[in-house]
Design goal:
Layout: H1 3-14, E1 19-20, H2 21-28, H3 32-48, E2 54-59, E3 62-67, H4 72-80, H5 89-101, H6 106-113, H7 118-126, E4 130-135, E5 143-147, H8 149-154, H9 170-173, H10 177-185, H11 187-196, H12 201-209
Antiparallel strand pairs: 1-3, 2-3, 4-5
Length: 210
């Protein structure tokens, strides 16, 4: 397996959090100069190829795998499509964890779920259910996520205090019981989300225009 493919795999897995040069150097067992050269070569191939929609951004001291700018209209259309508005069980679990533990980083969500959550986080952000609430102080400055006003409206909440008390569930959280409690607390709304889940972005946009 060549190092360029390994680099691409790592960039894909870390998602929107990105990954630093030193960590890539450690994981790929290469000097930082060699890793940076690999990144430049991979980015060069992305830029000249019409067979890929990928791009690499350098954000601070981190590298993030993204899509090319010209695909933005297509991706926006997808996000607003009724076919894309059904949330998966993974996305619902991710949303519940963020609602309880916010502000929280994607890596912390991953630790709680035990699986990678980058795709779910991106989908929830595209549907305006979660948003960036700041950055962690220190190396990497990971994004902190929290729920949005749209989330509050969608679940009929006046404030987050209406969620079940997370302190009383802290030990159960490791066993993922709060996810069930979250769903039970808003059974009617969650049932619609699980069985017919359609977050109507077009309706939201009409309301905003009014």
């Amino acid at each position: 397996m060549n190092k360029s493919s390994e680099l691409e795999a790592l960039l894909f897995v870390v998602g929107d959090e990105g990954i630093g040069l030193e960590e890539l150097s450690y994981l790929l067992n290469l000097p930082t100069e060699a890793v940076y050269q690999l990144i430049q070569e991979l980015q060069g191939r992305y830029q000249v190829s019409e067979q890929t929609a990928l791009n690499i951004l350098e954000v601070g001291n981190h590298f993030v795998l993204t899509t090319k700018r010209e695909f933005a209209p297509l991706l926006k259309k997808y996000a607003q499509s009724p076919l894309a508005n059904r949330l998966s069980q993974a996305a619902l679990e991710t949303l519940a964890i963020i609602a309880y533990k916010q502000p929280i980083t994607r890596m912390e969500v991953d630790e709680i779920r035990g699986v990678q959550s980058s795709g779910s986080v991106q989908k929830l952000a595209a549907r305006q259910l979660i948003e960036e609430k700041g950055r962690v102080e220190g190396p990497g400055r990971a994004i902190l996520y929290g729920t949005t006003s749209y989330f509050m409206d969608y679940f009929g909440l006046k404030d987050l205090a209406e969620l079940p008390d997370i302190q009383s569930m802290e030990s159960e959280l490791e066993e993922e019981l709060p996810l069930d409690l979250f769903f039970d607390c808003y059974q009617e709304e969650i049932s619609e989300t699980v069985e017919a889940t359609e977050i109507d972005l077009s309706s939201q946009e009409r309301n905003e225009e009014q």
